[in-house]
Each structure stands twice: as structure tokens, then as C-alpha cells.
Amino acid sequence: MDNTPHDKPSSEAPASEGIPAPEGAANLIDTDYVIGQDNITASPMGINVDLHGKVFMFSSLVILLFVIFTLAMQAQMEPIFNSMFSFLTTKLGWVFLLGANVFVILALVLIFTPLGKVRIGGANAKPDFGYLGWFAMLFAAGMGIGLMFYGVSEPLGHYGTAMGGISVGEDGMRTDWAPLGAAEGDQAGAVSLSMAATIFHWGLHPWGAYAIVGLSLAIFAFNKGLPLTMRSIFYPILGERVWGWPGHVIDILAVFATLFGLTTSLGLGATQASAGLNYLFGIPDTNATLILLILGITLIALGSIMLGVDKGVQRLSQLNMALALLLMLFVILVGPTLMIATGVAENLIAYVVNLPALSMPFGREDANFSQGWTAFYWAWWIAWSPFVGMFIARVSRGRSVREFLIAVLVVPTLGSVIWMTAFGTTAIDQVINQGITEVQDAALELQLFTMLEHLPLTAITSFVGIVLVIVFFVTSSDSGSLVIDSITAGGKVDAPKPQRIFWALIEGALAIALLLGGGLAALQTAALTTGLPFTLVLLVGCYAIVKGLMSEPRGS
Questions:
Q1: SS3 label, residue 496
Q2: How do residues 119-129 score in pLDDT, each as one tens digit?
Q3: Which end is more exposed in the chain, N or C (fewer Cβ atoms within 10 Å of the end residue's Cβ)?
């Protein structure tokens, strides 16, 4: 069979098992493949399983061996992780920067073209969730833990390096970590540059990757009737070969990227929660605490899994949104309110002004910043994109392409701008105007709690911060296991729950292994290593989604 999709009206072909049939006009792809046809179904010891043999077995075996090997050779693994991180950022950082630019540009272009009128799930499809629940799940799934971990530390870190100015080593290369040309001795300039750099890392670029993956999965599953798995995106390129080993490789890469990208966030969340418990209650901040914390949160995630998406993930996401909003409003009201209020617009302007320079992949003088910060972030977001993309695809049926892209790009970006401005401005104000240097001197995972210490109701707000980290942890683990299970079940969205439980346990084990085997460097290296091949995969997928959208009927 050739590589051209053979479409026919939805009334003439059934949708794949587990995928709702399109409502109204849509063009299903005419393929002989039946979802689950390569799956293994069995009930060992009364436990039902329904999984894609090759994808599941290869993925799970490699990851289990990695966990065992890392735990058995902890001392030897840390220098390996460090050297891999250095190589990937210094030699290949431009790949991540270039790829992220392509995703953002494509998403913005699609909004303003007639293709934006295509409706996910067919011309007459209605949304499965209201706006409030939809936005909550988008935001909580996308970058919850990261906002908690970096909300104070990143603006404060960039401010300090920008104020420090440019420093050059004997080889003539810059040794500082300041973004762009720094702002030595210029407080206002350093604040502006630090917030622009922070928003750059939490704005359009990460959500551009999520949007392209999510839209691609949604269209090929809900409009084309293909399995909800990464290989389906590549049908316009590979044709029927997508059901063979080329497709297996794509799905296996998606599993690795999702697991390691997710584990990076879970590891950061566990580190911050442990530091917060030590700070607030004096609980020892040790490896034993980290392990117990990850195990406990994994058990909570298992309970959420048993409740399902509607009762589990959505309710926890809404709880998180409410708590996060309350904490942010508290910081705005008791912090430097006027600076925060005026800072939102000022920071957005600074972001737009500095965006071309910050997103430039080549010829950068600020190598430490662009490679150590931006390249890592883009790898992390891209590694997360199968997870977040598949999750937002599942909850976005019934939205138009334009509505989907605007919501996924703009709403979380604005939320991130307000969050980073509130927490970052408060911390910087404490350093500049109140002389509270311990905020700047604290470890990354403690800077949020150190900042809150100098505001009223410290015990309450710090405890809310810990709860937020833990609930973000749970929703990420729950959503991640849902997505990985769908990939390893051949695209089925209703696979047996024991498989999701297995992947939730694997996520916890992997987080423990990486933290013990190399700490933060291991987490960052894991995201970079899996993000690199997946960046190349997604760049090819950009062509496929445009081709897929062009064959769909467009609404008025």
C-alpha cells in the first residue's frame, strides 16, 4: 500500500475500538489495521492484561534493566550522567532550540489559517469537559511541579547572574551564566532581563511542543479513526508500514521520552517536598525520606488511577488549581502588590522584546545560559510532549483546532507569566529592597519556602506549598501512567487498570533510581537523552499534521 491516506466519510467506516466515532463530517483513514490486533490478551493469576507485545516488552525490559543497573552502581553512574549532560548541551543544544522554534511557528500559523476551523472529533462534536475543568487539566498536566520548583529560584537566579555581568575565561569564552548580554550593576535592567528569560522558558515554546503533539494525536485518533498512539501521526508518511517496526520504534521512543521526562519532574517535586518537610517540621532531608515520599505519593496516585479520569485526575487538577490560585493571590496581596501588578505588563513587553535573541539557536555568546538552561528546558518539555500531548488530546475532543491552539498556547502562558511575576518579583524585592540575602543563598529546592518565611502566615503557606507539590506529583504520575499505558496497549484508551498501576510503580522506581544514582544531574540527563531523538521525530511529525488537517472538512 502506498503512503497516501485513503479517506472516506465517517458513515462508511467504523472508528477503531476504544476511540469514539466522529460526530458529523470527518475523513476516516481506510486501513486494514484493527486497534489491538497485535495485542496480547491474558489473565495471569486473575489479572487482566491487554497490551502490545513488542512495544510493551521492549520498553518495560529496557527500563527495568536501567533501574536495576543504576541502583546497583550508584557511585559509577553519577560521573557518567554529568559527562552525558555536558556533551548533549554543548554539542547538540542548537537542535532543541531550533526544534522548539519550529513547533511554536507552526502552531501560530495554524491558528490564522482556514485549517483552524477543523473540529476535533468531527464537524458536530461537542466538548467532553467544560472550560474550567479543561483549563485546570491543561495547566496541572503541563508544568505544575516545575512552577513550584522554579517559580522563585529561576527569576532570582537570572537576576543574580545578570547583575554580576559578563566574565570571560582564559580561552576567551564566557564563564558566567547570565542571559544574553547581562545587565551588570543595573538593577532595573537585570530584573527586566531575568523575568524575560524566565517567561521565555515557561511561555509559548514549551506549550508549542505540547500543542503540536496534542493536536496531531487528537486529529489522527478522533477524526481519522486511528489508535491514540504516537505512530498514528506518521501514517501520511509511512502508510501501512506504521503498524510494523517503524511504528514500534516511534512508540518505544515515546514511552522512553514520556517516562524519563515525567521522572525528571517527579524527582524535582520529591526533592522540593522533602526539603519543605525538613524546613517546616524538621523531618530529615535524606535519601530515606525521598524514597518514602516517592513511595507514599505513588500509592496516592494508584488510588487516583482506580477512580479514573473524571473522578481522579479532573478532581485533583481542580483542587490544585484552587490551591495554586489561593497561594498566588496571597503572595500578590501581602507581597509588593504594586510591583507585581505593573510587572505583569512590563515583563510581557520585556519577553516580546528579547524573544528573538533568546530563541536564536546559533551564534550565542551566552553559552552557559542557552545550553545549561534553555537546551535542558526544551529537552524536558519535548520529552514531556507525548505525555502532555496525549493527555490534552484525550480531554480536548469537540474543540476546534483554532480554539485548541489558542487555549493551549495562550492560557497556560499567561498563567505562567502571572505566577512567575508574583513569586519572582516578591523574591527579588526581598533581596533588593529588604536586604534578605538568605532567599538568594538558599538551595534551589528551599528558595520558595525561604521567600514565604518572610511573609505572614508562614507555616500555613509553606504547608500549602508542600501539598501543591505533592498533588501536582500525583496528577502527573496518574496522567503519565494513563498515557504510557495507552501507547503500550497499542492505542487502546480503555486498557485494564492493572497495566496503569504497573507503569505508575515503574515511574516511582525510576525516580528513586535516578535520584540515588546521580541526583539533579541524572534527572536532567535523562530528559536530554530521551528528548533528543524525539525532537527529530516531532519535526517530521509537523509535516504529517499539516497533511492530515488539509484533508479534513472545515466548519464555518
A1: coil
A2: 999 888 898 88
A3: C
Among 390, 386, 361, 363, smallest CA distance to 375 is for 361
Q: What is the pLDDT of residue 141?
A: 60
> Which set of grid coordinates corresponds to residue 151?
517559580
Query: Which neighbouring-strand residues pair with 52?
Result: 39
Separation between Cα atoms, residue 512 and residue 289, nearest integer Å: 11
Say if residues 386 and 486 touch (Cβ distance below 8 Å). no
d(CA 69, CA 85): 19
CA distance 163 to 369: 14
CA–CA gap between residue 196 and residue 182 (Å, rounded): 12
State the pLDDT at residue 8: 42
> pTM, whole model, 2 decimals?
0.88
pLDDT tens track for 155-179: 999 999 999 999 998 888 889 999 9
The three grid cell numbers given for residue 272, joined into one nine-digit string? 522540593
Sign, Cα dihedral of 47, 51, 54, 57: negative
Using CA atoms, how far apart are residues 152 and 263, in angstroms rounded to an integer? 22
Residues 322-341: b if buried by 16+ CB within 10 A, e if exposed: ebbeebbebbbeebbeebbe
Three cell numbers, residue 538: 516531532
Which residue type does 186 have? D
